[in-house]
Amino acid sequence: MEVSEEPKTQPFDLQKYVDIARRRHMFFLLPLLMAWLAVWCIGWVLPSTYKSSTLILVEPPTMPKEYVKPNVGEDLQDRLASISQQILSRTRLLLIIDRLDLYSTGRKKMSPDDKVNRMRKDIDIELVRDAQDNQITAFKISYTARNGRIAQQVTGELSDLYINANLAVRQHESEGTTNFLESQLDQARVALAQQEEEIRQYKGQHVGELPGQQAANLQILSGLQAQLGNEQEALGTAQQQRIYLQSLISQYRTLQGGGKAGDGSPTRLPVIEAELDRLRAQLADLSAHYTDQYPDIRNLKVQIAKTEKVRADLIAELHKQSTAPQADGGAGAHDLADATQNPALLQMQGQLHANQMEIGNRERAVVDLKNKIGDYQVRLNQEPIREQQMADLTRGYDQSKANYDELLKKKNESQMATSMEQLEQGERFRVLDPPSLPLKPDFPNRLKFCVMGVGAGMMFGLIVAGGLEFIDDRIYSEKEIKNLLPTAVISEIPEIASPGDERKSKTRAVIGWGTAGLVFVVILAGSAFNYLHS
Asked: Which residue has the higher pLDDT, 118 or 469?
């Protein structure tokens, strides 16, 4: 079984690299100096640009949101993007370019579009956010130009444009919101007025049939029914009175046709007495069960009073006849027999006529009350239908009223917010740091170019020196010779250096160190010059 031998790792040979540095130091220092000089010259050839910056603070509204609610969009980033599009538009930028005569110098004459594109590249906007809630608290505007004062002036112009544009945008949005709410409120007002007119017309067409009038209709119907009962009862009493009067007149006429009794008194007096006794008995019977306000008791009392009056008139007439002279006896009998000349009969006929008129009036009243009762019953029967129709009308009206009230509230709040924006009490942009006047160019940074030149030179020098060392196949050390020999070296011959070789070696060392010192001094001097003149 064969065991493969692993290659031994060579230890780091510092002397080897020192020898290479001694041999190739000139090929490292010269490329280093050349590359550094190239980068240093590029730093001075490139045109200097100055950058002016200003910091604009975003101030919240002075009025708390609990009192006045803003009516504009609260997304500041979107509003800044919209404002930036307006400010960085071709028209706005050309006005600034023409007023300040920007981008007019140079070998190549630039077109207006090229100037606008160049200015957009020179403008930089950086947002500053709060570390806690990531809200935009400020933003930074920067502008780069060949002249520091021009950069400061343009930055000031841009900051003013942003501040004024923010005020204009907020006022425009606020007024637009208020105008929109006012137009919606006008439409809601027209719709509400139309629905109110429909409800008014509906109520006018169905007076007495509305749901809210049901209790009143029931009360009126109950009163009409009570009146109808009273009228019917009074009509019955009047009809009984008519029958009674008709019977009295009939009896009176019968007695007038039959003559007198043997003693000369009319035979109808006992009949009246009997009728009077009957009425009194009936009154006593009703009084035992009812009060004096009972309608039948009142009617009986009226009839008794009338009957007593008839009896009194008859007795007075008989008394007058008994005291009259005998010579006038034939004439008095004739007058008594004449019904048209009898005062009692005329009175009863008048009572009968009045009774008939009362009966006619009460019959008409009964018919009128029945018609009214029927009308109110129809109203009560229509109330469920009217209630459903009224509910349909009022449902849309309530929704329109709620929408109108909500729009009115929003419109009033929007008007307050618009007034706040017009008074510049809303969210504002305020310059926290005025545009700076750059005294040193922002580009190129020549100190950085020096460092970059050193790095580029060292890389270039290492590539040149390493490449030459790689393609050189000569042997420079005893160790390399020993590694090439198959056997070990038994003896060595020491190197014998002549005075000339020693002088050459010293000369190369002096030249090497002098070159290294020169490169160091040149780099140091160039860096100091850039620092002092940057």
From this structure: 118
